[in-house]
Amino acid sequence: MTSRAEYCVIACAEAWRDNGEVLASPMGLIPSFGARLARRTFSPDLLLTDGEALLVGLDGEPEGWLPYRRHLTMVTGGKRHVMMGASQIDRYGNQNISCIGDWERPTRQLLGVRGAPVNTLNNPVSYWIPKHSPRVFVERVDMISGVGYDHAVGPYHRLPRVVTDLAVLDFESPGHAMRLASVHPGVTVDEVRAATGFDLVIGDDVPYTREPTAEELRLIREVVDPRGLRDREVAPR
């Protein structure tokens, strides 16, 4: 039986389908497993990094050198696809990881803006949100860190998908408002609607997130994550 975490790994891996030779920059366990699964299956040209200065292969062996200046060239030229987190995200994909409340006097200080503006304006950015709730999916973010479609400029801005523990969402709708693309098996559309703080674009027939193949399940369980760490981010259901 496929676990909820395994559906999330598959959904994250699909973010990098047909990306070609771009640098995958996953942040978090589930996105990392997704990127490695994509590289082993349908996106063999994907580039993986050790997070410092090396490009690495499937088993972590060095494949190339990626000094910071070359990394920045990829970042600013659309040759990287990041999967980030979000403390808040709104209907147009504006993301907040900086603060909660008025930015002049916030009630909570978070990570800070960091590289989110550069990421979202200069290369594709997807999001991984392990707990889908109205506290994260808000009508208006308290501060824009990552730039959404209603504030975007530049040729490389693209937000392919948002993956959560409940569903997959994208912006394939008129005006680029967030759309419910699929629900994970065992989840209903009403559950996703109730966990979202704004009105999603929802079609008449929302599909389920695709099933992993037998080989993909084997890779997840025996190669990509043999220790079962995926269940730390998404509890079995």
UniProtKB/TrEMBL annotation:
<comment type="similarity">
    <text>Belongs to the 3-oxoacid CoA-transferase subunit B family.</text>
</comment>
<dbReference type="InterPro" id="IPR037171">
    <property type="entry name" value="NagB/RpiA_transferase-like"/>
</dbReference>
<protein>
    <submittedName>
        <fullName>CoA-transferase</fullName>
    </submittedName>
</protein>
<dbReference type="Pfam" id="PF01144">
    <property type="entry name" value="CoA_trans"/>
</dbReference>
<dbReference type="InterPro" id="IPR004165">
    <property type="entry name" value="CoA_trans_fam_I"/>
</dbReference>
